[in-house]
Amino acid sequence: MDQTNDEGRVTLPTGEGSEEKRQALEIAEEARAEEYSHPSFAGQLFMGKFESSLLFPYPKQSEDDRKVGDAFIAELSTFLEEHLDPDEVDATREIPQKVIDGMAKMGVFAMKIPKEYGGLGFSQTNYNRTVMKVASYCGSTAVLISAHQSIGVPQPLKMFGTEEQKKKYFPGFREGKISAFALTEPDVGSDPARMTAVAKLSDDGSHYILNGSKLWCTNGTIADVIVVMAQTAPKIVKGKQKKQITAFIVEMDSPGVEVIHRCEFMGLNGIYNGLLAFTDVKVPAENVIWDEGRGLAMALATINVGRLTLPAACTGVAKQCLRIARQWGNERIQWGMPVGLHEAGREKLAFLSATTFAMEALTWLTSSWADKAEVDIRIEAAMAKLFCTEALWKITDTTMQFRGGRGYEKASSLKARGEPPFPVERMMRDCRINTILEGTSEIMKLFLAREAMDPHLQKLMPLLRGGSNIKILSKLIGYYGTWYLKQWMGSWLCSKHCELGPLAKHFRYIEKNAHKLARYLFYYMAVYQQKLERKQMLLGRLMEVGTELFVMAAACSYATSLEEESATDLADYFCRMARRRIKGHFAAMGDNDDKQANVLAKYFLEDKMQWLENGIIPIE
Ligand SMILES: Cc1cc2nc3c(=O)[nH]c(=O)nc-3n(C[C@H](O)[C@H](O)[C@H](O)COP(=O)(O)OP(=O)(O)OC[C@H]3O[C@@H](n4cnc5c(N)ncnc54)[C@H](O)[C@@H]3O)c2cc1C
Asked: pLDDT tens-digit profile of 348-389?
């Protein structure tokens, strides 16, 4: 059984299951990024290594870069405050054209375009700082900017575009052209193997004919140019037919492109998101991005970087919640005391502030790593996305509870009654989608699990390839004997981390628990082998632990880089909360109800509990 792909990389055994599942896994495996030569901080945690030097001292944005960002953000903020009413966007479902034009004039749609193509050439840090600011004010406007630049045409062309493609498309973005990213289809959500959009190469090889539809394409209803993923002719590899997914630049004014429907959602009312149809659309062959068959790898590589924007956007909204909670916590008197001083209120304020602090720590750390382009940040980007999107949902929920009835009331209604128009309900509606798009939280955990297991799979490759001679086995036993022992010893003999001052205890905890996490992961890999892939609840807990450890490390390092005394208290409180959660995850690995949940869900899907639905008016 050969467990390498045609590039010689080790791939996960696809195990039993349907042909469809095998294909889905195979496609996902093919799209995994190539090997990275630089270490991943969080990836190493799963191997029991806490390389604190990778994030301590906390990286600082250079003065020159900061000044560029400061000037741009100040101008943009003033413009938005003067010309954009986020509640009107929410009510009318429109971002006024004059606002879009004004932003275009400033170069908002060319922030990520390199200067040599007429763009602003922003660092990831300045781009994220800008998105954070906009997201704190108007979610829909932040999404317009981000869908265009984090995943739309600029990012994939920056990474994989030809010189001709860059010269052709980049200058247009400085003039305000808008782009989008179209991967999802009615049957393609988390699983791209089900893709039905097809692009057929013409006989003379000059163009492709694109047919199919794309769902929920953000900016799709107003975009000038979009990236579309479609199936191209399958390849025969090792005698088997392999699906090929290719990415294309598609100009929206091409004959045969149609916006079928502008979608409406729970929140983000002002986004221009649509169902698009392509009927015999002629796409020039030179519009293929990267290579034929590399479309999914391109999409995933794009999203790996694109994902870094979500933590920034989430942090912006969380900071707005802090501002609202601070004001309300002091002003609202009930039972003789400001609500922020009742202990239940204090608990909420501590959670809000410490969690926001950790989100910010993650955001600037990962942005800085992306700018340096020295470290492999796929894992960290996924963790930052997972953590920040889940945390923001809890933060808006907590803020709503803390605001009481006013949290549930629309800003326009509050304003009409003469009260401060704090838009907590809008922020809550707007942020809910974040745990779903650009990889759902569940898919993030599966992605992390795959990457966490990779170093072991690499080591085991000779065995997976079918080799079982004594030499291979004794080498593996030798390696793992020492490695496993180290994971036990490391739990006792960790560094002092005095450089962290009062937060040193948390760095020691991270080091010890990275060893424990590595032991657990290895143990479960050995016990369940190929079946581990299906143990999603177990894997989920392991990934939660790894993520919490990474966030703790980022928060502690960030605190030491700041002059504010309270930064240490915030990091300390965050770490205390995270440690309790980690304790719970470790405990649940041995003591859980996973088996019962599996049985119950099976009965449920087999309609054995349909009686429980009695008493409702069914909605068809
Ligand atoms: C407002 C909005 C904007 C969007 N913008 C874009 C865009 O610009 N471009 C674009 O291409 N797409 C876009 N999307 C699509 C978005 O990326 C998808 O919604 C997302 O990928 C999830 O796919 P799905 O909704 O089909 O859910 P599904 O994949 O059907 O998943 C349903 C549930 O099952 C879970 N699940 C799925 N597979 C597994 C598994 N293997 N193991 C465990 N759990 C699993 C998921 O986590 C989820 O909870 C947008 C969607 C929305 C709502």
From this structure: 999 999 999 999 999 999 999 999 987 789 999 999 999 999
Task: Name the residue with the closest Cα to ligand 1, atom 25.
Answer: 189
Is the CB of residue 184 below 6 angstroms from any atom belonging to ligand 1?
yes
432 alpha carbon – ligand 1 mean position (Å): 13
CA distances from 220 to 153, 251, 432 (A): 12, 11, 21
Please work out whether the CB of residue 534 comes within 6 Å of at least one atom of ligand 1: no
For residues 86 and 90, what is the distance between their CA atoms, to the nearest angstrom? Answer: 6
CB burial readout 372-383, b (16+ within 10 A) else e:
eeebbbbbbbbb
| Exposure class string for 80-98: b at 16+ Cβ within 10 A, else e | beeebbbbebbeeeebeee
Residue 498: predicted pLDDT = 93
Question: What predicted TM-score, i.e. pTM, was given to this entire model?
Answer: 0.94
Instruction: Give the C-alpha separation, 353 to 359, whole Å.
Output: 10
Beta carbon of 322 within 6 Å of any ligand 1 atom: no
pLDDT band of residue 3 (cuts 50, 70, 90) is: very low
Residue 221 Cβ contacting ligand 1 at under 6 Å: no
Cis peptide before 96 (omega within 30 of 0): no
pLDDT tens track for 11-49 = 444 444 566 666 666 666 666 655 555 678 999 999 999
Please identify every residue annotated as catalytic: 438
CA of 134 to the centre of ligand 1 (A): 25
Report the atom number in ligand 1 closest to the C-alpha of 143: 3
534 CB neighbour count, 10 Å cutoff: 14
Residue closest by Cα to atom 52 of ligand 1: 216
Find the 613 Cα to ligand 1 centroid distance in Å. 26
Residues linked to residue 232 through DSSP beta bridges, in sequence order: 244
Strands 207-218 and 273-284: antiparallel
Amino acid 1: pLDDT? 35
